[in-house]
Records
---
Amino acid sequence: MKKVISTAIVFTVMMASVASVQANDKKVLLPISAAMNANDAKSRLGDSVKFYFGKQPGPVVLEKLGSDRSNLKTNAFGKSNEKACNWVFLSAMLQLQKRAIELGANAVVNIVSSYDNIDYANEAEFECHVGAVVAGVALKGDFVKIANK
């Protein structure tokens, strides 16, 4: 009987430890410029769609075609917060780019982090949430047509 109780106690402690590790949700703010220089982001995004973050000044908007959001996750196990977040940031940007092309837009403006529908507008940083095994980035923006320069 003592062995069963001991095993049950050990099991309970282990499960509580696993639950607390999985529940870890740390908000990380990282530079957009570093994310755009990681994972070959600039060449993967190309220049057919321009991106403007927060209240970053941009060209005159000729037509607004809609708004949308991306909310992506990636495996963060064994990766630094920066590496996991930069990877999922690129994935979120590629999703915004794909939507812009579908709508006929050549720019995405007013891009903000919008994790759990709480906006964080910044021209220099994006918000990422990192747990023990998952990292997530949520971005939203407006799809527009701008004059080509």
Note: The chain is about 35% helix and 40% strand.
---
Amino acid sequence: MDGSSDERLTERAQAALAAVQSGRMVESGAERLADGVHTEPRLHVRKTYELKLVCAGHGSAQLSFRPKGSGTPVKVPCDQSVVQQRISGGKRIHVDVDAAHGSKGVVAWEIDSI
């Protein structure tokens, strides 16, 4: 993909996230799917958060968490649909989003305090 394609896909993914805004944003970003998302958000004890992801492009991505049990692994389709998952603060978690083989596009994500 060229830069202008990435920019258009980023705009689409971020617009889809903005349409479902809830709570106070804690952390967000947009990455080329080939690079993936790899973050360790600072989440406060006894608070609930919502992780939202949108992939724009083609193929899919895989959302995973470390340590196991911190969240539910799920496939994220690159069709601009919003995937949401609640996560709890209090333990250090690592969030990863990796492209499935042959997938291309942009993934936008946001963690909101709810």
Note: The mean pLDDT is 91.
